[in-house]
Specification:
three-stranded antiparallel β-sheet, T-fold, 8 helices
């Protein structure tokens, strides 16, 4: 499953690079865009006219790579490599290709560092809540508890020597929807960088972005201006951030949810409790790689306030923007962690910006 299959990314504070804050002043600054469909969303590569000379020759190979990764990681094709793991790993160790095995290792490492808030073994929970079919339902509490017995990254046994995967419980399933799209962006970035490209932006469904170099040749503006949309008003930008040599990942559940007895249940589930997270509106993470940014954004979305503060303090290299509902209707509280030298411009006057960890209002 991929997040954009559920249309979950679009309203959630997502960046949208195609909305330039200012027109290009020179022909060489005009954008050239290529796109392809994959993993339930549209992938785009944006570069300048000058930059296309390095980008264009390798794009066919890059887009073919995205297609190959989708075929490898999808849960909708019984013949995919991931589904072969899901169908057989409870019975015996399953050999895994080098690329996928490294991704599984990274995913379990992220599970450990987030203390289980990110977990690729949580697929049975999504099926229980029926979110994988865009038709959420409230399961019985006993069914949630029973399903949790098959959840847990520690139950995914990865043997580095034999490069195999095995499940510790019979009802386990893997789903890379929280990290696979970012991984594809990272692989495409690696290809473009190796070809000598220096100025480009890659996004997958707009919720996952990597930017390299600069959009404009200007001493006043460096990097790529990326918008963060309002979590309550999707067509309005909340802020702009200048991004270069970094990735952004955003997680939220604004569009994929259902109402039961007057209570809203979003599709992002806490794998530790089995219940939807409702602590905040969205979380955006700025990190060196897209896969890392995507996975951490998902983890931070389900964490409580103390967990979020602790994780941010332990990872000062990560920029974090957590959007929460304000006291009055329409107001948003933006809690900003580890902003460092990153340039953030807030555009919405109804946003209260709190710089953590001191809680200073700016």
């Amino acid at each position: 499953m991929w997040p954009d299959d559920l249309n979950s990314a679009l309203p959630e504070g997502l960046p949208f690079p195609q909305d330039d804050p200012a027109p290009a002043s020179h022909l060489s600054d005009m954008l050239v865009t290529w796109s392809t469909r994959g993993m339930g969303c549209e992938f785009q590569v944006l570069t300048t006219i000058d930059g296309q000379q390095a980008v264009a020759p390798v794009l066919q190979a890059g887009f073919s790579l995205i297609e190959q990764l989708e075929k490898q990681m999808t849960t909708y094709d019984p013949a995919s490599e991931l589904e072969s793991i899901n169908s057989s790993a409870a019975s015996n160790p399953v050999p895994v290709s080098e690329n996928l095995f490294q991704l599984l290792l990274e995913a379990t490492s992220l599970s450990e560092s987030t203390r289980g808030a990110f977990d690729i073994t949580a697929a049975p929970l999504s099926r229980l809540w029926n979110f994988h079919r865009r038709d959420g339902r409230l399961p019985a509490a006993d069914d949630i508890e029973a399903t949790l017995q098959n959840i847990g990254w520690e139950k995914l046994l990865l043997d580095v020597d034999s490069r195999t995967a095995r499940f510790h419980a019979a009802g386990m399933r893997l789903d890379l929807g929280g990290i696979g799209k970012g991984h594809a962006i990272d692989e495409l970035n690696r290809l473009l960088s190796s070809a000598g490209a220096t100025d480009y932006l890659i996004h997958g469904g707009q919720s996952s972005i990597y930017a390299r170099g600069s959009r404009l040749r200007s001493d006043e503006e460096t990097g790529w201006q990326v918008g963060i949309s309002h979590p309550l008003i999707p067509d309005r930008r909340l802020a702009l951030i200048s991004l270069s040599e970094e990735a952004i990942g955003t997680s939220g559940s604004g569009r994929q949810s259902f109402i039961h007895n007057g209570r809203r249940y979003g599709h992002i589930l806490d794998p530790r409790t089995g219940w939807p997270a409702n602590h905040r509106l969205s979380v955006t993470v700025i990190a060196p790689r897209a896969a890392y940014a995507d996975a951490v954004a998902t983890a931070l979305f389900v964490m409580d306030d103390n967990e979020l503060l602790d994780f941010a303090s332990r990872h000062p290299q990560l920029g974090i923007i957590a959007l929460e509902s304000g006291a009055n209707a329409g107001r948003v509280i933006a809690r900003v962690f580890n902003s460092g030298n990153r340039v953030l411009k807030w555009l919405d006057p109804a946003t209260d910006v709190v710089v953590e960890p001191d809680g200073e209002l700016s």
